[in-house]
């Protein structure tokens, strides 16, 4: 005679919630046509805003520079404006299956347009020196990058062309406005210097080398001298 309890047909209890109560984080959840290689590539590209946000934080913390921090603040304000506009316009997305919330204007398009506009203005703020290649190359790359992200929102059916165009225009306008506000109001009036003089910024060695010529060359020369002194190595 067996001491084991008789088998039961009742399913084992689980702590997993019912499937209809679960959802996905739309910030990172991207759906695409698995039979379309272009859609798969664009699904990765459309996540670029997350990479850019990580870049803002990484550069600010590692370089201790004020410029990326100010640019990040503008980027966050740009997102707030997008949320307000979406709640004012209240235009639906092309399909209810993809994406959460309203679709006008496209937040991805507005994000990338701000990023590209501010970056390009930063590259040419003091004018490109004769024969300089970096400002032109960087500008072309960010424009292509932004265009791919913007196009991905239409190709993946998250937005209409009207929604991405509206987002692009809003992002460009705010990017130019924030750049002008920072460099023609905050900086000349000494507000950025006041921030740099705060105990917190001085404790963290925050600096502003935006107008410092050849700052990277000077840092490299300082490192080379340190390398010679401490390691006994020469060029």
TrEMBL record:
Where does this polypeptide localize? Answer: Endoplasmic reticulum membrane; Membrane
Q: Does the keyword Transmembrane helix belong to this entry?
A: yes
Classification via InterPro entries: Dolichyldiphosphatase_PAP2, PAP2/HPO, PAP2/HPO_sf
Mind telling me which residue stretches traverse the membrane in this protein?
41-59, 131-152, 164-186
Where does it mainly reside?
Answer: endoplasmic reticulum
| Phosphatidic acid phosphatase type 2/haloperoxidase domain boundaries | 68-179
Identify the GO cellular component terms for this protein: endoplasmic reticulum membrane
Per the entry, what this protein does is: Required for efficient N-glycosylation. Necessary for maintaining optimal levels of dolichol-linked oligosaccharides. Hydrolyzes dolichyl pyrophosphate at a very high rate and dolichyl monophosphate at a much lower rate. Does not act on phosphatidate.
Would you tell me the protein name for this molecule? Answer: Dolichyldiphosphatase
Please name the source species: Actinomortierella ambigua
């Amino acid at each position: 005679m067996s001491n084991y309890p008789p088998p039961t047909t009742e399913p084992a209890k689980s702590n997993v919630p019912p499937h209809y109560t679960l959802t996905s984080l739309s910030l990172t959840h991207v759906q695409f046509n698995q039979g379309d290689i272009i859609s798969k590539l664009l699904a990765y590209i459309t996540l670029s805003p997350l990479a850019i946000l990580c870049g803002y934080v990484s550069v600010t913390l590692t370089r201790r520079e004020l410029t990326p921090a100010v640019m990040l603040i503008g980027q966050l304000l740009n997102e707030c404006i997008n949320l307000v506009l979406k709640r004012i316009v209240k235009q639906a997305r092309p399909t209810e299956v993809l994406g959460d919330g309203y679709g006008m204007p496209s937040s991805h398009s507005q994000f990338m347009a701000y990023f590209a506009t501010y970056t390009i203005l930063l590259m040419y703020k003091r004018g490109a020196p004769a024969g300089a290649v970096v400002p032109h190359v960087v500008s072309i790359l960010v424009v292509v990058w932004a265009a791919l992200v913007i196009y991905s929102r239409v190709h993946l059916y998250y937005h209409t062309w009207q929604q991405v165009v509206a987002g692009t225009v809003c992002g460009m306008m705010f990017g130019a406005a924030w750049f002008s506000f920072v460099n023609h109001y905050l900086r000349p009036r000494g507000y950025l210097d006041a921030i740099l003089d705060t105990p917190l910024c001085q404790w963290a060695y925050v600096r502003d080398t935006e107008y410092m010529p050849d700052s990277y060359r000077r840092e490299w020369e300082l490192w080379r001298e340190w390398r010679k002194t401490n390691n006994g190595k020469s060029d």
